[in-house]
C-alpha cells in the first residue's frame, strides 16, 4: 500500500524504472556475438558508400566543408531569416534514400550554422536514445531540427547579425550496425 503523500510519485517512478530496465536490456548484448539474421521478408540495402565509424568533428571556429556521400539525401525547411534575440531557430529536415534502408537515427537532425566558412554554432544536445527509421525509395521521413542562435565561442554571446549557412547532419546506423553520416545544406539564413 502506498502512503497518500507518496501516491502521486508512484506512477512516474515506476515509468522511469521501467524505461531504464528496457534500455538496459536492449544494450546488454555482447559485441562479440554475431548479429541475428533478419528473417523479415522486407527488402533492405546497405547504405553506400562503405560506412565508417569516423564521424566529422563539428568544432567551434573550425573551417567546414560538408563531406559528400553518406547515402541519404537531406533537404531542409527553415525560415529565411530569424531575430538574433531567440535561443534557436526551428525547422525540419527531410531524409530520403534512393533505396530501402532500415536502421536507427537520433530523434532530431543535428543543425548548425557556418559563417565565412567557419562553424559558428554547434548542434544542440539531444536525447541519446535513437528511433527506428525505415525508409523506402521516394518516401521521405521528416526529422525536427533546431539550430542554436548563440555563438559556440567562449562566452556564448548571441550571434552577430548577418548571413549564415545552415547545415544539417543525420547519423544513420543501419541494421548492420556501422554508423553513416549524411549532410544537407547549405541553406542561407539571415540573422537580424
TrEMBL record:
UniProtKB keywords: Signal
Annotated segments matching region Disordered: 29-51
Extent of the signal sequence: 1-25
UniProt-recorded name of the protein: Secreted protein
Amino acid at each position: 500500500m502506498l502512503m497518500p503523500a507518496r501516491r502521486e510519485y508512484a506512477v512516474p517512478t515506476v515509468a522511469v524504472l521501467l524505461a531504464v530496465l528496457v534500455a538496459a536490456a536492449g544494450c546488454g548484448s555482447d559485441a562479440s556475438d554475431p548479429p541475428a539474421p533478419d528473417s523479415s521478408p522486407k527488402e533492405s540495402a546497405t547504405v553506400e558508400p562503405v560506412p565508417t565509424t569516423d564521424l566529422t568533428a563539428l568544432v567551434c571556429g573550425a573551417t567546414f566543408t560538408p563531406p559528400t556521400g553518406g547515402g541519404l539525401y537531406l533537404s531542409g525547411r527553415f525560415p529565411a531569416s530569424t531575430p538574433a534575440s531567440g535561443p534557436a531557430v526551428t525547422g525540419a529536415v527531410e531524409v530520403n534514400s534512393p533505396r530501402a534502408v532500415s536502421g536507427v537515427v537520433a530523434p532530431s537532425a543535428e543543425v548548425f550554422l557556418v559563417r565565412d566558412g567557419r562553424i559558428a554554432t554547434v548542434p544542440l544536445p539531444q536525447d541519446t536514445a535513437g528511433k527506428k527509421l525505415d525508409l523506402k525509395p521516394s518516401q521521405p521521413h521528416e526529422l525536427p531540427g533546431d539550430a542554436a542562435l548563440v555563438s559556440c565561442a567562449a562566452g556564448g554571446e548571441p550571434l552577430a547579425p548577418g548571413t549564415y549557412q545552415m547545415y544539417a547532419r543525420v547519423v544513420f546506423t543501419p541494421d548492420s550496425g556501422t554508423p553513416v553520416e549524411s549532410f544537407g545544406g547549405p541553406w542561407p539564413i539571415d540573422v537580424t
